[in-house]
Amino acid sequence: MRILFLAVLRPHTGNAVTAERVRVHLEAAGHVCILKDAFDFESPSEIANLIEAEKCEAALALHLYRGGRLVQGHGIPFGVIFGGTDLNEDVNQGEKSKVMGKVLEEARFAVAFTESMKEMAQMQWPHAKDKIYVQSQAVLSQWTLSFSCSFEPGITTTPNAAFNWSTFLQRAEINQSADNLHIFLLVCGLRQVKDPLYLVDAFSEWHQEEPNIYMVIVGPEVDPVFTKEVKAKVKSSIPMRVLQVDPLLVPCCFRATGVRLMGEMPQADLHAAVKNCFAVVNSSVSEGMSAAILEAMDLEVPVLARNIPGNAAVVKHGVTGLLFSDPQEFVQLAKRLVSDPALEREIVANGKEYIRTHHSWQVERDTYQHLLRKLEGSLEA
Question: Which of 23, 144, 165, 204 has its CA 20 to 30 A from that of 109?
């Protein structure tokens, strides 16, 4: 089949990574997959022209609102994949929710990453309950995506063997001479939904008590306006008592606040940094399924994640990671993890096993190839 695949392909987003991975699955089954950015189209009529020009026989949309509303009504069978924000945010907006409900009425199938996402969708649109399937994401690195893969496991992380952790710490202006150094890594693109500022104040206060504790925010500047806000906040995280004592100490104090902001890193270097850090942190307001969490588990690094549905579907508290509901609880749990090596080892082992058993690349491939046969069946009928 010639399949039109609409997704939001903005760089450094989970949807873009997922779309590329699913494209590989479809093409491995012999389909022609025409992957397009949903943001490049403003109306269904533009999609109609594209379908005709490309002779598309079926369609797939990632994100029920952004992509789904554009592929319906064209007379070709289609399926949808929930993106995360469609269920966590757009569903609360009346008009968008109505549009998404109509998309589900016409869709041949819908894919949710987790059981909780499926339950949310079924509650909102009961008429679609029999067409919603659950398929966890298999997250691979860019290196692996360059091949047509058919091996286990689904999570493939490729730390750069030449990565220099000391150089990374030096760039982050972190005092490497501190005893028992603990680095918490928050991996995210700088945009509001990732809420990278959520823990900054609490972490800065903790760092003042324990100078060997640091949080490093690593990721690309996705939203320029929000990036300015993040930079201003991190640089202004200076205890007022120091400012009142001697303004000349401000640069030194900045290095002592415990929060650092780093730019985008190559994937292999990022995986190496994750492997070297003490724990990975997720503070997002909304998640479909966090690749950073899955990759940390595969790299045998503990995870502390904000207690939201997308994270709670992956992180079982006290088993595969730790879930926090506010900054104060984060600090409490992080201190517990630092002081309890046995807990750290248990979480790491359980996380690795969870990845092995629940995020298989081959299972994901089989699922999407099976679902595409539903569209082929529609054509034959």
Answer: 144
CB 82 within 8 A of CB 117: yes
Q: Find out whether 223 and 191 touch, Cβ atoms under 8 Å.
A: yes
Q: Is 322 helix (H, G, I), strand (E, B) or coil?
A: strand
**What pLDDT digit, counting tens, does each position of 261-294 carry?**
998 898 889 999 999 999 999 999 988 788 899 9
Q: How far apart are CA 7 and CA 257, in angstroms?
A: 40
Residue identified by tokens 């991190």 is 234
Q: What six digits make up the tokens of 135?
A: 């398929």
What is the Cα–Cα distance from 318 to 329, expressed in whole angstroms? 14
**DSSP string for residues in 233-285:** HHHT---HHHHHH-GGGHHHHHHHSSEEEE----HHHHHHHHHHSSEEEE--S
In the three-class reduction of DSSP (H, G, I as helix; E, B as strand; rest coil), residue 365 is classed as: helix
Q: What is the pLDDT of residues 343-378, one digit of tens each?
A: 999 999 999 999 888 888 888 899 999 999 888 876
Q: Would you call 187 exposed, middle or buried from its count of C-beta atoms within 10 A (0-12, 13-18, 19+)?
A: buried
pLDDT in tens, 92-110: 888 998 999 999 999 999 9
